[in-house]
Amino acid sequence: MPSEQDLRTKIESGLPDLHNLIVTDISNGCGQSFDVVVISNTFEGKNKLQRSRQINNLLKQEIAQIHAFSCKCYTEAEWSKVVV
């Protein structure tokens, strides 16, 4: 099973211009469900589907091993409005 650190490392190495990354194991540590928030200006000009696909492609092998995966992708400007 992949860990929070496994997902974090894969995203950090594969996504340029990463501003912030929040990876949370929401399955009480058993590695079956993850919630991920990615903040990067790489997402500028991309819609939600394109953003999600970019992260899903990075984590293709890890996602195949887990039960549930949720990912929210924001640019820095969008994130600043979310965390007011």
From TrEMBL:
It comes from the Eukaryota. This is Bola-like protein. GO terms for cellular component: cytosol; nucleus. Belongs to the BolA/IbaG family. InterPro entries: BOL2, BolA, BolA-like_sf. One of its GO terms (biological process) is intracellular iron ion homeostasis. One of its GO terms (molecular function) is 2 iron, 2 sulfur cluster binding. Coiled coil: none annotated. Pfam families: BolA.
